[in-house]
Write a structure and sequence with these properties.
7-stranded parallel sheet, 6-stranded parallel sheet, alpha/beta, globular
Length: 376
């Protein structure tokens, strides 16, 4: 394959540069770790917020950022014309779309603009709006368009692939990798705990990290903590989102202020997981919860919704899958964890499993290099 300027020019299309997003974390991880002398990666995004944004970092790494309007603002045909115009005016060898159903219209525009390599990437296993008529018909049509326009299919998990591409379709699995260097800690656990406002070293720390949305199911955590009032534990929650204020009001209404502490949007998630005893992921749907992978990198146990992909479990005996139909199994398991000594897993064993499953950066970046046709 002959590339522009002897190296591929890749346009990544996704929704926002907000640091709390999972897709953003994946794309930025690639940008930081891939050999940028061998590939040029640029972004086309709907939103580049002024605060809590990756914009400055991405630009410092040599990325050009195009601000585009989303399909709900423009409508299908104007959105298509916008993408096609951008690609006709700027030469790209590869367009990599991370926009679920809208991948098809983005890649059709890329096809008509002469882009040879068109990648559709599925990051989730659900429709985060609804699954009713007429949206159901709309989504089926866009899935068919995606199938026709894409030259390569990529997914973060089996469930994410099945959802967007259909069952038994050939695709490239690229796990959502983490930077293991972030999980080598020089501070003591006691020092880190104090930075999160925990001074009682005997207190067991439960943790949840994620956007406050219906699908993340944070209100399930209120019922859990209500039943753990008498246990020596606290739940630390980090994240933002449209349901944050409603959730925090519910914490106050149920007098759970002593059991649930809100940390806001934080950047030092690895440290938080390192000092925590258990991560809680009660999501209704999710492509692959990266925080569940990060928990294992930190040696932290996790309880994850039974409806999520089993590919999160890296074989370190740190993951429990439980149904979200009832809080009772979660409460029972958490009481066991609270009253037992924390299991310490050697970092060498953790690293071994991460490399074997491609959740570690170097082995993961090699898959991205193959995808873009370059050597690592």
């Amino acid at each position: 394959m002959i590339f522009t300027d002897n190296k591929p020019r890749v346009l990544e299309v996704f929704d926002s540069l907000e640091i709390s997003g999972g897709v953003q974390k994946v794309v930025m991880n690639v940008l930081r770790n891939i050999d940028r002398n061998k590939v040029q990666i640029d972004f086309a995004v709907y939103d580049a917020p002024k605060v809590d944004s990756y914009e400055e970092e991405a630009k410092a790494l040599g990325t050009k950022i195009y601000k585009i309007d989303n399909i709900s603002t423009l409508g299908v045909f104007k959105f298509y014309k916008q993408i096609k115009k951008l690609l006709l005016e700027n030469t790209y060898d590869i367009v990599h779309a991370h926009n679920l159903f809208h991948n098809g219209i983005i890649l059709l525009a890329a096809k008509r603009a002469g882009v040879k390599v068109r990648i559709s990437h599925s990051h989730q296993s659900f429709d985060d709006r609804n699954n009713k008529f007429p949206r159901n018909i709309y989504c089926k049509l866009f899935k068919l368009l995606n199938k026709d326009a894409a030259t390569k299919l990529v997914a973060c998990s089996d469930l994410a692939a099945d959802f967007l591409f259909g069952k038994n379709k050939e695709y490239t699995l690229i796990p959502n990798a983490v930077n293991m260097d972030n999980f080598r800690f020089s501070k003591s656990k006691l020092e880190i705990k104090k930075s999160f406002g925990i001074t009682d070293d005997s207190l067991k720390i439960l943790v949840h990290v994620g956007r406050f949305t219906e699908l993340k199911n944070q209100f399930f955590l209120l019922d859990i903590m209500d039943k753990l009032r008498d246990e020596n534990c606290v739940l630390l929650i980090a994240g933002q989102g449209e349901l944050r204020d409603k959730f925090l009001n519910a914490v106050n209404e149920r007098n759970l202020q002593d059991k649930i502490k809100y940390l806001g949007l934080i950047r030092n998630v690895p440290e938080l997981l390192y000092v925590s005893d258990c991560l809680l992921v009660p999501s209704i749907y999710e492509g692959l919860p990266v925080v569940g992978v990060e928990a294992q990198a930190a040696g932290c146990r996790a309880i994850i919704s039974g409806s999520l992909t089993k590919q999160v479990d890296l074989g370190l005996n740190l993951i429990d899958y439980l149904s979200i139909d009832s809080v009772e199994p979660w409460v029972i398991r958490l009481k066991e964890i609270i009253n037992e000594q924390k299991k310490e897993v050697p970092f060498e064993k953790i690293m071994e499993r991460f490399v074997a499953t491609h959740f570690e950066n170097d082995s993961n970046i090699s898959i991205w290099c193959d995808l873009y046709g370059i050597s690592q």
